[in-house]
Protein 1
Amino acid sequence: MNQSADKSIFPKIAETVLGQLGLSPAKDKMNTDFRANGVLTLGAELELQIVDAGTCALTPRAEVLLKPFKPDSKIKPELYLDMIELNTGICRDANEIEGDFSKTLDLLVAEGERIGLAFASTGSHPFSRYAGSDVYPAERYNDLIDRNQWLTRRWKVYGLHVHIGMESGDECIRFNNFFMRLLPHLLALSSSAPFWQGEDTGLATCRPTMYEALPTAGLPYFVQSWSEFTSLCETLRKAKAIASLKDLWWDVRPSPGFGTLEIRVCDSPATLAETVAIVAFIHGLAHWFKDHGDWLSQVPQPQHWLMRENKWRVIRHGMDADVVVNAEGDNQAIRGDILSWIEKIEPYAMKLGYIAHMDVLHGICAKGSSSARQRSVFARNQSLLEVTACNMQEFKARRPLWE
C-alpha cells in the first residue's frame, strides 16, 4: 500500500543513531506501533506472471520490464524475476481501486507489448516449473531462500492482498476476528490455481499449500486485543520464529505500519473485473461489520479444526465446497453462504456504487471461478498451452470470458 505521503525524518534519524550503537530496531524491538491512516480506506497489491508472448511460458525479465519505471512507481519487483507486483495508492472505495489499477495496467501492458511480454494473473502458471527460477536480486529475497530453502523455492504462486484502513489496533483485531470467518469465501471466489508444473492438481487452488508448511503461514491465531497481538509477536521474535511482522504470512494479519488490516488469502484473480469485485465484497463486508460490531458476541468463535477443515474444502472444491457452519458439524454450500452475505450487504453495495461488482460475484457463483474456466478449456483438448493462452486473453480483456 502506497505510504509515500508519510516521510518523517525522525524514524530515519533514530535508525541512524541505533546503527552507530551497533543496534537494529527491527531486531531489538518488534515495531507494532499502530499508525492509523484513514478508516475503511482501501489499498491493494496484485501479483502478476510475466509471460513470453510467443511461448506463453514464464520468462525472467522483471529487470528489463522495470527499467522505464521509477523506483517509487506502482509497479514493483517480487520474489522471482518472472513475477511483478502492482500496488494502488490509498483509495476511498473499490471504484478508485479499479481506476488506479487500470492506469497502471495501461502503462505495464504497453511496455510489455513493446518488448514482447504478456501477463496473466491466475494463482499459478499452468505449466512452467519453479526449479532453477531466478530470484530477484534483493537481500530480503535471498534471506528468504537461505532460511526456508526448498519451501520458499516453491513460492511460484500469485496472490491478491487487500488493505483496509483501521482507526486503532484494537479495532483492527475486531475486524480481523470477523474476517477470519470469511476467509474460505474469499478464497473460493478467487480460486485460480488448479494446475501446477504441467499437472492437474485435482484442487481448485494449489497456491495455499505452497505456504502452509511454514509455522508462521496460513491460518492466524485468535487474539482478543491489540496488546495480546503485540505480546504474541514479541514472543515469536524472542523465540527467533520471526524477525519482523513481514515473516507472518498469515491469511489475514494486522499491518500496523500502514494502519491497516491486510487480507492475504486470495489467489490473484484472473481478471481485473474479478479483482475489483472481490475488493468491493471485502469493503462492503467491512462497512456492514462497522454497523453490526455486536455480531461477534452473538456467534461462537470457530474452533481451529473447523477453520482448517473449511479452508481445506475450498482448496479442494472451490465454489463447489460444502463448509462446516457450527461445532455440531452441520454443513452448508459455500456458494449459498456467499450469496447470503451478498444479499446482507446489498444496502452498502448500493450506497458505495458496487452493484455492477456484485453482478460479477453473482456470475462467479453461477458459473464458477477461474479454476472452473481453466478446467473447462483443458477438457476440450487437453492442452495446458491453450489454458495459459486463455488466461492471458482474459487478463488482457480484464473481464471473465464466460462460455
Protein 2
Amino acid sequence: MITSNDTITQILGKYSELKEVFYNHGFKGLDNKLVLKQIGSMPISEVLKNREINVDVFIDMLNETIKDDTIDITLVESKYKEDAINIIGLLPCPVRIPLLERFATLSNLDKINHNLKAASEGLDWLKEEVKKANTEEDLADIYISAGFDLFFEDDLMKKFKDVNVFEDYFTDRTFNTDFENDYLSLKDPSGDYSMMGVVPAVFLVNTAVLGDRPIPKTWADLLDPIYENSLSLPVSDFDLFNAILIHLYKEFGDSAIRTLGQSLIKTMHPAQMVKSERRARIKPAISIMPYFFTKMALPGSVMKAVWPEDGAIISPIFMLTKRSKKEELKEVADMFMSKETGEILSHRGLFPSVNKDVDNNLTGKTFKWIGWDYINNNDIGAILAHCMKVFEEGMK
C-alpha cells in the first residue's frame, strides 16, 4: 500500500504501471534521471502539495489502481492472434488500467486482440484506420471511445452505421436514473450505438483571480463579456472540447463559439488547470474541465468547483459492436456494460455510468445532452469544422 511518506522513486520501483497515472496528472519526464533526482526522493505528499494536488485523493487513486495487483495486466498485452476478436479504441486515462484488468475475467482471453490506448494519445491514429476501411471486414469487431467526430462524421463511422454494420446489444436495458428523463434520452433510437457512460464538463473557478466578478453558474453566464481573456478550455482534450463546442453552438449559435475564442486565456491539460493557482504565470479565472480533475484541487484553496445549474455538458463514452458477430462478441460486450465496469468508470474516474445498478453519487446533478435527433439530422463533422473555424476567429 502506498503512503504519503513514500517517494515517487519508491512507488515506481514497486509499481511501474503507475507511471501512466503520474503522466496523466502532469508529471512529465519521469524517465529522466535529472527529473527523478529533483523530485524522486521527496515524500509524495510534499510533491503533491507543491503542485496544489489533493494528497489524500491522489494517493487513494494510486492505491485503487494497484488494488488488484494479483492480476497480471500483461495477460491482455499478448502478441497478435489470427482469427481472434479485435478490439480497438481509447479509454479515459484515470480508468484505463483497471478497465484493462477486467479482461482477465473473460473466458475467451486467448482469442482477443486489443489496442486500447489512453485517451490522452488522441484519436488521429484511429480515425486514419477507419478512413482507410472500405468494408465491414476492414473494421475491428469492437470500438470504444468518447466524443462525436469519430462516430458521426460521414467519412468515418457514419458510413458504416448507415449500412447497419453495428448493433446495440442492450436495447432493452433501463438506464441509470441519473439519466432517466425525457430531456436526456441517451439510448440510441436506431439501435446502433451502445453508451457506457459520460464525461461531464464542469467549471473550476479561481476565486482570487476572479476578483469581484460573479461566479458563473450556467453555460450562458460564461458568455458574459466580463470573462473575456479569463477562460481556460480543454482544447487538447478533443472529445470534451468538441462536446462543448457542439452543445453551445446548438443552443446559442456562432456568437457563443466566437465568445469562447475571445474568452480563452490559456489551453491546459486538466491536470495543469487544478494546480494553476500557484504554478501558472498566466492564471485563468475559470477553467472548464472533466469533473474528475476538480477532485484533485486542494480543499480550502481558492479553487472552487461549480457544477453548472443548467447541466454539465457531456461527452458520451460509446461502444460499437458488429451486428454480424453478436454471438462471438457478447461476453466481451457484457463485460464492458457490466455493473463492475460501470463502477470503475464512476467511482475511480468520476465518469458517470449509465448502468442502472451503479450509484454515481450525483444526487441532484443534471446533464446537458445534444440529443439523437440533432445528431441524426445534422452533419456533425461539418458542424464541428465550422465551430472550430469560428472559435479560431474569436481567438484573433
Protein 3
Amino acid sequence: MKKLFVSLFVAALSLSMSAFADRQHTLKIYNWADYIDMPNVLDKFPEWYKEQTGEDVQIIYQTFDINESMLTQIEIGKEDYDVICPSEYIIERMLAQGLLQPINKDFGSTPDYTQLVAPFAQEKFQQMAPQGSDIRVSDYTVGYMWGTTGWLFNPMHVDEQDLRSWAALVNPKYEGHIFVKDAFRDVYSVLVLYAFREEIERGEVTRDELVAHLTPERIARVEEVLMKAKDNIAGWEVDFGKEEMTKGKAWMNLSWSGDAQWAIDEAAEVGVELKYIIPKEGSNVWFDGWCIPKYAVNTKAASYFINYMCMPQNAILNMEEIGYVSVIASPEILEWANDEDIEETADLSYFFGEEATEVHANQVFYPDLSIIRRCALMHDCGEQTKEMLAMWNRVKGDNLSWTMIGIIILLLVAILVWAITSALSRRKQRNMQFKKFQNRKK
C-alpha cells in the first residue's frame, strides 16, 4: 500500500512538473477585445521570439470587457496572466496595491523599442505613481494606446459653436438627443473642468489638480451639472452610441476619440457626416498600458512581448486595425501621421519633438498642442469611489424626462389593457365551454 501511495505521489509530481515546464513556454495575454492586429502582429510573435531568444513560446490570448473584471482576476483570483493591458486609473491602483512586477528591459542584442514611447506619454504615466512613493512608473508599465474624450456630433443637427463648450450638455436645444458614456470616471473628469471653469480661469486651481483630487464639493458640482442635463440625455452607453451616430439616429455623443474616428469613417460610407471636437474648458487624456502582474509566470516572454509591441511597424499595424493611437513617437510613426490631403496643420511637438510643429495630421488622433495643454490625466477615485458611485446612481436613477415618463405610462396602460382583455376573453371562453357542457348533460 505504501509503495502504491509513493508511486501515485511521484506520478502526480511528475505531471505537475511537466505542466509547469509547459507553462514556462506559454505566454498568457489578457487584453481588451478587438485591441490588437491578430494575424499580422499577435500571431507572428512566437516566430519573432524564437529568432530573438532561440526559445519556443505558445500564446494563450483572452479578452476582458471592463477594467474591473480584469483586476478581479488578478486581485482575488490570483490568475497567472503574464501580460495585461489596463487603463491608467487601474495601473495607478495596481501600483498602489503592489500587484505589478518590474519589466525586464535587458533584451540582449534585441533593441529596446520601449525607448520609443513619446516623452509626453512617459510624463503622463509618471503621474500614476502612488502619492508619497518614489516609484518610477516606466519600470512597471509601458504605454500602448492613448486618446481624448470629446463630442462626436452630426453637423446637420448640431451647431458646432455650441459644442465648443461642455455647456452643450445642458442646452435645451438638444433635449433627448445626447448619448453619454456610462463611465463615471470619464464623465466626471471632463465635467469637473466645466463646473470649475471660472476657478481655472482665475488661476485658483489647475486642471490636473481638479481631476487628480476628488472632494465632496467637486463631486456635488458635477452632479448638479448632470442633473440639469437629464432631460437632454437620451441614454447611457458604453459601445452602442457610436453606432447610433453612424445611422444618423443620434445628434451628439460624449465619446472617446478612437470610437469617434471609427464612427466618422463608418458614417462616411453611408453618406452621413460626423465630426469630433474637444470643448474649450478642456478634457481628459487617457492611456492604456502593458503590465506584468504579480502572479505572472513567464516574465521573460512577457517582457519581450511588450518590447515587440513597441516596434514601429507593429504600432502602425495595430493603429490601422483598431483605430486608436499608439504612444510610439518614432520617425516612422510621424511619417504615418502626416497626411498631405489634410489642409490644416497641427503642432505635435509635444509628441514627436520640435520637428513636428506643423504636421498635416488628423486631429481626432493627434490634437494640437493648444488642445493638449487643456487636457488632464484621469485618475483612480481612491477613497471617493463609493461617493462617486452613489452620485452616478442618483444621476442615472433620476434620468427620466417627462417624455420618457409619458412613454412608460403609456406602456403600462397598454399592458394593463392587454391583461384585462385577455382575462375577459379567457372568462368568456370558460363560460361558453360551461354552457356547452350543461347542454350536453341535458
